[in-house]
Amino acid sequence: MTGRTTRGHPDIHMSEQNETHTDDPKIHDEIPTEQTQAKQGKAEQVQAEQGKAEQAQAEQVQADQAKAEQAQAEQGKADGIDAPDTEAQELAPTAPVRPEAPTFAELGAREETVAALAAAGIHRAFAIQEYALPIALRGTDLIGQAPTGTGKTLGFGVPLLERVFAPGEGSDGVPQALVVVPTRELGIQVAKDLAAAGRTRGVRVLPIYGGVAYEPQIDALRKGVEILVGTPGRLMDLQKQKHLRLDRIRALVLDEADRMLDLGFLDDVEKILAMLPEDRQTMLFSATMPDPIVTLSRRFLRRPVTIHAGHTAETGPSPQTQQLAYRTHSMNKIEIVARILQAEGRGLTMIFTRTKRAADRVAEDLDFRGFAVAAVHGDLGQGARERALRAFRAGKIDTLVATDVAARGIDVSGVTHVINYDCPEDQDTYTHRIGRTGRAGATGVAVTFVDWDDMPRWRIIDKTLGLDMPEPPETYHTSPHLYSDLAISTEMTGTLPTAERTRAGLSAEVEEDLGGGRPRRGDGPGRPRRGESRSEGRGEGRREGRGRRGRGDAERGGEHGGTPIPDAAGTDAGEEGGRTPRRRRRRRAGEVVPAEQGTVTTATTGVAPLFVSPADHAGATPAAEGTAGPEASGRSEGGARPEGGGKPRRRRRRRSGGGGGSDAPAEATAD
């Protein structure tokens, strides 16, 4: 057989020889007659028709059984704890790479698993599944190297399902298998695929990841699960809180191990491995095998078998993906992207940027140009990220701008174009990015923008992967080769025509409140909510009790029950009705006013405060003779105290020899 990549594995080579042993040279030496050929052709045609009829009947029975079980499962999930399993039927049917590939039943999977996969339209195995299943089903430790989109999930998922006991088979709800993944999106996708493959047996699969509330995950653990799929951080948190038991794990899978190394999760992974029983099966899957991953495998795996399937990061991307590279200017990239998004036959498109800020900027610019687009990066909450992914899968948006970390594990069928808005850091990142297209035997287009400063890095990537594009052509949005390479009409502009804006957009997808996120601005203590004045619920009583005098206090006196100017009648009752006057007050110039001299009241009209003496309340004359000094100075008949925007006036006593009072006001000087 051709098209397989195996490196020194006797078991795999032996299986290849067994499959091809029927090619006897003697058969090719015989020349059959025309009559014999006709009979053989009719017999083969009848046999093929019978096989198709039997297969269609079996698929119909399996589909009916899957629908019944799905309805039963949905009825038992009224509490919403197992919400990720409700979308497990999204396991997309995929076309096999080779028509002669073996079925899952031939590889040793049990009938229930085969029926569940057949209900999803999966009948034959990919290369990584064909190689991994016979080894993993024996309980042997395994290291698998395969790129994204080649069926790695079922490559380790089917052996996991074979090793765990379902609820009806004696399971007590303690986790029996664990899958460690680097990102939340990958964990959700893996959990959905495993739940779909184990639906007929009722195997419970729970994704564990951060960014959401703890309570639903803790409740699901209490109810019982068989397989856990989680990120290292949340797994460590739940284990420290004594909500997670790992002492009965019989099988462990490290998926995307190289990405865990890039994200700095390797220390947490080693701590998790130290908590597991030694008598377990360990499977490690990685697109590349850097030295730390090799060291990890030597420490925690026992005589593992290594499998290389398909095109890895060392062998290069999928040959079914058309790869193009253009040397572009940073100010012209968005114009080129706008043209590529209007290419003929374009489906879903993913755009990769180096930074989160660049992802937001590109998404906003494309949205302004009329494209249905959304951004996904680490600064977004889990609810916003899942909302964008749901809209992308449902076709409400057709363009997703993402960073490398956020895009890890995004498994969406129908991605026809991948655009590297920023040049990848290395060949591994390049392979992972463009691996989002050309999946499961489909074709795709990958376009990479290379700036002048990125040329040394790009030459290394090109030489390592053998792309034969060391000098990308200088390209602008007006370059003719851009339109011919990507089948873009020359009439296209940088804005999507109104008639073609048929997508519902991101606004058509509702964001779910998953809990566990940061509080919204305005919901914290000491910060008013939207539509609430800052005085509501905060500091109102304190400000009223301070006794400050000024325009603000005058306004507050009219609004919040301050003391208004009393009328001529009824003031005696107000002052002598048991009301205790204030002992002392400071005037604006820093002078003390005795309580028995007067009180300060505020007007409802918001003007300057008025000084009203007890004698004024009784209707007497303003002051008796001989009252000179600061208490009597500066008073007018109206009692209004002047206000100035500058320095307060300092009042001085006037020297008088006889000590007799005078009706004239005291002399006031300003320094």
TrEMBL record:
A Gene Ontology BP annotation from the UniProt entry: response to cold
Bias (Low complexity) ranges: 43-75, 591-608, 618-632
InterPro entries reported for this sequence: DEAD/DEAH_box_helicase_dom, DEAD/DEAH_RhlB, DEAD_box_RNA_helicases, Helicase_ATP-bd, Helicase_C-like, P-loop_NTPase, RNA-helicase_DEAD-box_CS
Region of interest (Disordered), ranges: 1-81, 501-671
CDD domains in UniProt: DEADc, SF2_C_DEAD
Basic and acidic residues composition-biased segments: 8-31, 520-544, 550-559
EC number(s) recorded for this UniProt protein: 3.6.4.13
Top-rank EC class of the record's enzyme: hydrolase
A single Gene Ontology CC term: ribosome
Composition skew (Basic residues), residue ranges: 647-656
Domain of life (superkingdom): Bacteria
Domain (Helicase ATP-binding) ranges: 133-307
Domain named Helicase C-terminal: residues: 335-480
Protein name according to UniProt: RNA helicase
Organism of this sequence: Micromonospora yangpuensis
Lineage: Bacteria, Bacillati, Actinomycetota, Actinomycetes, Micromonosporales
